[in-house]
Amino acid sequence: MKIVVLDGAVLNPGDVDWGPISDIGELRVHDETPPGKVAERARNADVLLLNKTPLKRKDIEKCAGVKLVCVLATGYNVVDIEACAEKNIPVCNVVAYGVDDVAQHTMAMLLELCRHVSEHTESVKAGEWKKINMWCYWKKTPLCLEGLTMGIVGFGSIGRRVGELAHAFGMSVLANCPHPKNPPNYSPFAFVPLEQLLASSDVISLHCPLTAQTREIINAGAFAKMRDGAILLNTSRGQLVNEADAAKALKSGKLRALGTDVLSTEPPCASNPLLKAPNTVITPHIAWATAKARQNIIALTAENIRRWKHGTPVNVVNGVNTTISCS
Q: Is there a catalytic annotation at residue 303?
């Protein structure tokens, strides 16, 4: 079995092990693949692996040997899954590989926005503590999380973990999702409609998938329903938030602060309004990027390949459950 990775450098710059996949077949890893090289590099593969390299219909039509496509991520919008289905090629993704990692990053951004750790560290290093000559000082008043309400939009595995962490900090938790079930055993907790969540939360954290219904779900109308001085967190998808509306809410003070690991376009354009918005923490899509989570992706991908090879495919996102034998 020949396995080709189109863009391995981001997932594995050298600090995790491809072994679980190379144990299955002959593995060839390209650090990155430009659009014009996709079909050429994929042509002789039985199994094609990719992360963010687009796999378009024109490329799929030139890859007669490919029998399985595995996305080294949860999101699979980079793959034309319909074109793969027409060629009887299953497309598999990986899920729940970094639940704790993303939840911890969410809380890290929240703590930074509430305690201003980085700003005060830089202030001390710049000599301001010595200049003020007092036993303590603060540039911005810290905010305690205990007693505040965390509203979680999307209550899958990551949203649930964020709820547990918020509860551990003494916060009340509200959640909104299409099909509420299995409420957690801590209290206070409630499933509520989105409008109630927006109106009742001090902190709103987004953990829902990007769909036609959720695109720009946080917009001017949503900000108008929020409490004055709410905090918004996003470790899901940048397109969930209308960035221009968010920048206006930050500048007006309607929104106390924003922490986001994702943007509508990545890397961002210089004109992205959030880059100059006040009280904003932006990280470069790294909530998932611990070595533990990336090794999990490799292990789960290897399991996807093995299950497909043995006739019991899992995590198939395009409805094709065909197994085609290969040497």
A: no
